[in-house]
Specification:
CATH architecture of the largest domain: 3-Layer(aba) Sandwich
Radius of gyration: 27 Å
CATH class of the largest domain: Alpha Beta
Number of helices: 14
Number of domains: 3
CATH topology of the largest domain: Rossmann fold
Order of helices and strands: EEEHEHHHEEEEEEHEHEEHHEHHHHHHEE
Helix content: 40-55%
Strand order of the largest sheet: 4-3-11-12
Bound molecules: zinc ion
Length: 462
């Protein structure tokens, strides 16, 4: 596979450093509420990325963290009157359920920040010892970004006019930070009253780790000092990923991530998503409106990951139609394939174009288009060729993580019913609506429901 690397600013071939397993890390969710479809754009694309590597025969090691302690989780758990653990466990379960509905494979390792406080404390100690961090009067510890000249390479800070501040007022203590200023950032946050019971001991006094640190500590624990790829939403490039690089390179040496994979924003109806606009949809919101998680997934795959994607209800309608078309084609193919055809072939045949497109910078949108091109040819196949085409089609669907809806049950429609329906189509095309209604009633009386489309119809049994 070839993929665009944010750091190198070019598309590169992806091969595992150790020649065996492709090891990658994704910044996970902050578990303080339901994830919305914008969050899921990132997780779904990361899932397709992994599935594509695995479909090509590569082994993967996928690590994704859970942020279960930060300003937001503490504040919201207190509002909910629950302990931090109770509260974050609840939202973790909910997140996993949503991931399952979206067919996102669970990561191989999913570490939580709270369980890795000792590793984070150790990393701070090393950073202080090596002169990259300092403690302040109140018992907080900050990373000294002036000590790391490479700071800003990922987000190309040198091309932006940003101020570097080191005064107390300019230091970034909050997990929710000002994105347009570069400043020393917090590694250890001294205990404050509003933290309640959520503090841990450290050489600098009670407190808790800053948000950026957990990823560095968990990456070191599970992937070591150098690994294949790091991924997240584009909003994490600065400062979160810059800070991760600074912490890890200064504490551990090593190259850290060989490649960076960032997924662009999701927009809704052409604008930003926000709570106040009421367009911060969760899977549950969309399910209430009658949309399945698979239809949401299809929409999320319908644009290139490097460009913002506009989510609309029209795009959900289009996704539904596209998936029904795919399901019908699959049904046609399986009807023509010999029942005893066992296929172990890994060839993509008619779907080679779709597979190549997917491997070219994870072009999911292009791959979906190419799948339809493949299907148009595939449905002309007979016998073993139909079976082969079907196997290749399913292989691609697995790479995209799409599960098709059951195509309408295959029922044999009696000739006389088809004749009536054809007659009705003819009168409809002649705009004889009265006669069309009469024929509809006749069909209904015989037990058949007819559903009209532009120049065709579908029959189903009552
Ligand atoms: Zn992270």
């Amino acid at each position: 596979m070839r993929l665009y690397d944010t750091l190198a600013r070019k598309t590169k071939d992806l091969l595992p450093i150790d020649g065996q397993t492709f090891r990658f890390y994704c910044c996970g969710p902050t578990v303080y509420g339901p994830a919305h479809i914008g969050n899921f754009r990132t997780f779904v694309l990361q899932d397709v990325f992994r599935r594509t590597l695995e479909t090509s025969g590569m082994r993967t090691l996928h690590v994704r963290n859970l942020t279960d302690v930060d300003d937001k989780t503490i504040r919201e758990s207190q509002r909910a009157g629950q302990s931090l653990t109770e509260f974050t466990n609840f939202w973790t379960v909910k997140f996993h359920q949503d991931c399952d509905k979206l067919q996102c494979l669970p990561p191989h390792i999913e570490p939580g920040a709270v369980e890795h406080i000792p590793q984070q404390v150790m990393m701070i100690e090393e950073l202080i010892a090596k002169g990259h961090a300092y403690s302040s009067e109140d018992g907080s510890v900050y990373f000294n970004i002036a000590s790391f000249p490479e700071y800003g390479r990922l987000s190309h800070l040198d091309e932006r006019e940003l101020e570097i501040g080191r005064t107390q007022a300019q230091r970034a203590n909050a997990d929710e930070y000002e994105k347009q200023s570069v400043s020393d950032f917090v590694l250890w946050k001294a205990r404050r009253d509003e933290d309640g019971k959520n503090f841990w001991p450290s050489p600098w006094g009670d407190g808790r780790p800053g948000w950026h640190l957990e990823c560095s500590a968990m990456i070191r624990e599970y992937l070591g000092e150098s690994f294949d790829l790091h991924s997240g939403g584009v909003d994490l490039v600065f400062p979160h990923h810059e800070n991760e690089i600074a912490q890890s390179r200064c504490a551990c040496g090593g190259d850290f991530a060989a490649s960076w994979f960032h997924i662009a924003h999701l927009m809704v109806d052409g604008g930003k998503m926000s709570k106040s606009l009421g367009n911060l949809y969760t899977l549950e919101d969309l399910a209430e409106k009658g949309w399945s998680a698979m239809e949401v997934r299809y929409v999320l795959l319908s644009g290139h990951y490097r460009k913002p994607l506009n989510f609309t209800f029209d795009s959900l309608h289009a996704a539904r139609e596209a998936m029904l078309k795919m399901a019908k084609a699959a049904q046609q193919l399986s009807a023509k394939a010999p029942a005893d055809a066992v296929l172990t072939s890994v060839e993509f045949g008619l779907f080679q174009g779709a597979w190549d497109t997917l491997n070219d910078d994870l072009n999911t949108a292009g791959a979906l288009g190419a799948i339809f091109t493949g299907l148009r040819e595939a449905v002309k196949c007979e016998g073993l060729a139909a079976a082969k085409a079907l196997a290749a089609f399913h292989r691609l669907l697995r790479a995209l993580g799409l599960v098709l809806p059951e195509a309408e049950k295959s029922v044999t429609v009696p000739e006389d019913i088809i004749a009536l329906a054809d007659q009705r189509l003819a009168v409809r095309q002649a705009r004889d609506w009265a006669q069309s209604d009469v024929l509809r009633d006749q069909l209904a009386a015989l037990g058949w429901i007819v559903k009209d489309s532009k120049d065709s119809y579908e029959l189903s049994q009552k």
